[in-house]
Design a protein that fits this description.
The protein is mainly β and 115 residues long. It is 0% helix and 53% strand. The strands form two sheets. Strands 2, 4, 5, 6, 9, 10 and 11 form a seven-stranded mixed β-sheet that branches. It has a four-stranded antiparallel β-sheet with strand order 1-3-8-7, with no helix packed on it. The radius of gyration is 13 Å and the shape is globular. It starts with a strand and ends with a strand.
Length: 115
């Protein structure tokens, strides 16, 4: 069964940091592009960062310089490290990959940035 499982969310104060994890099972993530997305309260889901199978990375303008996406292939996991968090980073964070033209999403992990 192909599955993605996110973890690492939580409540953090503005200026703080979090590292989100996206663990794959049933497929080897290093062979696929993996993206992180978020859905702020009352808003549409939006892209945050993506790492291609070849390693190229892209970030949304809103997180450039504050977030890093990277892989740990031994753990079959893709991480999103977020620093200098802002209240507008609040939302449910999802990872996604595509296999044989089908999208696979994790269940999401909540990130709340608040004092």
């Amino acid at each position: 069964q192909l599955q993605l499982v996110e973890s690492g969310g939580g409540l953090v104060q503005p200026g703080g940091s979090l590292r989100l994890s996206c663990a794959g099972s049933g497929f080897t993530l290093e062979h696929y592009a993996v993206g992180w997305f978020r859905q702020p309260p009352g808003k549409e889901r939006e892209g945050v960062a993506v790492v291609a199978s070849g390693g190229a990375r892209n970030y949304a303008d809103s997180v450039k310089g504050r977030c890093t996406i990277y892989r740990d292939n031994e753990k079959n996991t893709v991480y999103l490290e977020m620093n200098r968090l802002k209240p507008e980073d609040t939302g449910v964070y999802y990872c996604k990959t595509t296999n044989r033209n089908r999208d696979y999403w994790g269940q999401g992990t909540q990130v709340t940035v608040s004092s």
